[in-house]
Write a structure and sequence with these properties.
Layout lengths: L14 E8 L4 E8 H8 L9 E6 L2 H4 L8 H14 L6 H16 L4 H17 L5 H20 L34 E3 L9 E4 L4 H14 L2 E4 L6 E4 L9 H21 L1 H21 L6 H26 L5 H11 L1 H9 L1
Antiparallel strand pairs: 1-2, 1-5, 2-3, 4-5, 6-7
C-alpha cells in the first residue's frame, strides 16, 4: 500500500492502527492499513498490502511517542490545508505542496504514530475536497484533525514512578477537557488466531484508547521501566535489577568492565612491586642467616629494619587508597629502601 502526498483519489476504507503486545518476548507489533489486510497479515499472510508492519521492543510505542510542543503539526500540516480548502484553485497547489512536504517528512521517518497521523491528515483533506459545501467540510476536517494532533502537544503519555519504574495508568479525563466523545474512547479488541494466543487492539478515531490500553497492560503485567546505563534508552524489565537494555549494550558493558579492570591492574602494580621487594628482603636475610661470620647483633638489625620497612610500607599503601599519595611515589620509595640491607652487610 503506497502513499504519496499529492492530490489523488482518497482512500474510502477505514484505515486502522493496530497494536499487538507480546509479554513473553517483550515485543510490540504495530500495523497500519485496512482492516481486512491487517487481519490477513496477523494470520501470517505477508503479501497482504499494509502501510506499516513493524515489530519493536516492548514500550517503544510509548517511549518514542510523537511530541510537538511548538505545534508544528497544526502550523505546517493542518493550516495550509485549511487555507487550501478556502482558496481558489490557483492558490491550492502551493498550499498543498507546503503541507505535503511536511507530512511526507513525518511519514518517511518510519515511526508508526507519525506515519498514521500524516496519512490520516492527508487522506481526510482529500475527502474534504469532494463535497460542494467546502466550508462545512473544512470545519469537519479541522475539528477532527485538530483534536487528533492535540495529543502530540501535551506531555508525553509515558509516565512512570522514577523509583519503582512502574507505569502510571492513563486517565483520558485528565487530558481532555469537557465531555469526551464516545468515538474518542472506542477500542476494538481482536483475537486474530483461532487459539486466541494473540491479542490486538485497533484504534481509528483517536490514539488515546491505544495509549490507555498499553499503559494499563504494562501495569497489570508488573513490568518496570528502566533507563539503560549504557545507551540511556528506556526499556521494560521484569525487575529493577536489570540495567542494560540489549545484547549490544551488555557487550559494551563487558568491554567497559574489562577496560576498568585493566586500568585498576595498572594502578595496582605498586602492590606487586611491594610484594617483590618484601621477598627480596627475605632472600637477603635468609642468606645472611647462613653466613657464620655475620655478627648476631647485625642480623638483629637487619630483621628490625625489615619490620620497620613493612610497617612504613603499609602506612604508605593506606595513603594511596585514600588518594593522599600516588602509586609512583610509593614505588620510587620502595626501590630506595633496598639499599638499607646492603649498607648493613657492608658494615660487617
Amino acid at each position: 500500500m503506497e502513499m504519496e502526498f499529492v492530490r489523488h483519489e482518497p482512500c474510502y476504507d477505514r484505515i486502522l492502527l493496530v497494536l499487538s503486545l507480546d509479554r513473553q518476548k517483550k515485543k510490540e507489533r504495530v500495523l497500519i492499513g485496512e482492516e481486512l489486510q491487517i487481519r490477513f497479515r496477523l494470520r501470517g499472510n505477508m503479501d497482504a498490502d499494509v502501510l506499516c508492519d513493524v515489530t519493536r521492543p516492548l514500550g517503544t510505542f510509548l517511549a518514542e511517542f510523537e511530541h510537538d510542543p511548538d505545534g508544528e503539526w497544526s502550523r505546517l500540516g493542518l493550516a495550509p490545508l485549511r487555507e487550501a480548502l478556502h482558496s481558489n484553485r490557483w492558490r491550492q497547489p502551493a498550499l498543498e505542496q507546503s503541507a505535503g512536504e511536511f507530512l511526507s517528512k513525518k511519514y518517511l521517518t518510519g515511526d508508526p504514530v507519525r506515519m498514521y497521523a500524516a496519512f490520516r491528515i492527508w487522506n481526510d483533506y482529500l475527502l474534504a475536497r469532494e463535497p460542494r459545501e467546502r466550508a462545512k467540510a473544512c470545519d469537519r476536517f479541522m475539528d477532527k484533525m485538530s483534536h487528533f494532533t492535540q495529543m502530540f502537544q501535551e506531555r508525553s503519555p509515558l509516565r512512570f514512578d522514577p523509583d519503582t519504574g512502574k507505569p502510571e495508568r492513563f486517565h483520558i479525563s485528565s487530558r481532555v477537557f469537557g465531555t469526551v466523545p464516545a468515538e474518542e474512547t472506542r477500542l476494538d479488541l481482536w483475537y486474530p488466531d483461532n487459539k486466541r494466543n494473540t491479542e490486538c487492539v485497533a484504534a481509528y478515531a483517536s490514539l488515546y484508547p491505544a495509549v490507555t490500553y498499553y499503559l494499563n497492560r504494562l501495569n497489570d503485567w508488573g513490568l518496570h521501566f528502566r533507563k539503560c546505563k549504557i545507551c540511556g534508552r528506556l526499556f521494560l524489565a521484569e525487575s529493577l535489577r536489570y540495567e542494560l537494555c540489549s545484547d549490544k549494550c551488555r557487550k559494551a558493558q563487558a568491554l567497559q568492565n574489562k577496560r576498568e579492570f585493566d586500568e585498576r591492574a595498572r594502578d595496582n602494580n605498586y602492590d606487586l612491586v611491594y610484594k617483590n621487594e618484601c621477598q627480596h628482603w627475605r632472600n637477603i636475610i635468609n642468606k645472611a642467616k647462613k653466613n657464620p661470620g655475620l655478627p648476631a647483633d647485625r642480623l638483629e638489625k637487619m630483621q628490625a629494619a625489615f619490620e620497620a620497612f613493612k610497617k612504613e610500607a603499609l602506612q604508605r599503601k593506606k595513603a594511596i587508597k585514600t588518594e593522599k599519595a600516588s602509586p609512583k611515589n610509593f614505588t620510587d620509595w620502595l626501590y630506595q629502601q633496598s639499599s638499607i640491607l646492603t649498607d648493613l652487610l657492608e658494615e660487617s
